[in-house]
Amino acid sequence: MLDNQPISDQERIIANLAAVRANIESAARRAGRHPEDITLVAVSKTKPIELVKMAYNAGVTHFGENRVQEALPKIAEFRPADLRWHMIGHLQSNKARRVADSFDYVQSVDALHLAQALSRYVEEENKQRLPILLEVNVSGEQSKEGIAATETIALARQIVALPHLDVQGLMTVAPQVKDVEEARPVFRALRKLLERLRDEVPTASWRHLSMGMTDDYTIAIEEGATIVRIGRAIFGTRVYKGDQQ
Ligand SMILES: *Cc1c(COP(=O)(O)O)cnc(C)c1O
Predict the structure, then answer these.
(1) pTM over 0.85
(2) For residue range 47-96, what is the model confidence (pLDDT) as tens digits?
(3) R_g of the chain computed on alpha carbons
(4) Residue 107 Cβ contacting ligand 1 at under 6 Å
(5) CATH architecture group of domain 9-235
């Protein structure tokens, strides 16, 4: 019987994407926003390139990876002209060259020396300015990457002055909470910080707020997210091996 057939990965991704897009649209409408102002970044970490290709065939053009070693072979294998690869994970300066070489967007800039290294490599390679976001640790959790909220404005002034980066906004990862409503104040605080940056560091566009993942993206959109980073809701749960996170 047909309905006993296991569905294929392609069908599953198409169905998952339809659900995610519908949720993005209704969250945007609830907030009086336009769904087309929200960019979906499909987070493909731990997933094989075949699934990336399936999502691309279903209309996704932005993909996020959090580990340089895992991402580089994927990027080398699959890079159609309209696809953008986003670095979303913690990044050390010694990997800045490879990241500046391969990624189209870096969302996880959290230190001046990292920003300087990226700017220098972009210059050496004569590339266009690299779009970046500053990652902020809004909740102040010890275990989290990111710039302390209180230090963001001072650091932003220095990073915005680097010639080969295009600072476009802020990114955060909300704490894992039982009730996703608890993430709302974190998203709201990031938006407030962005508004202060628009006033106090007006030389950058500050147009993007990257916030919201599988468990909390509709709340993030209600609070102003322009980029959501979604993995499991598109590709399914991840199976971790070794030190991957
Ligand atoms: C893994 C990851 C995501 C996606 O998480 P899901 O819960 O699978 O949607 C988003 N942002 C960052 C920084 C991540 O590391």
Answers:
(1) yes
(2) 999 999 999 999 999 999 999 999 999 999 999 999 999 999 999 999 99
(3) 18
(4) no
(5) Alpha-Beta Barrel (3.20)
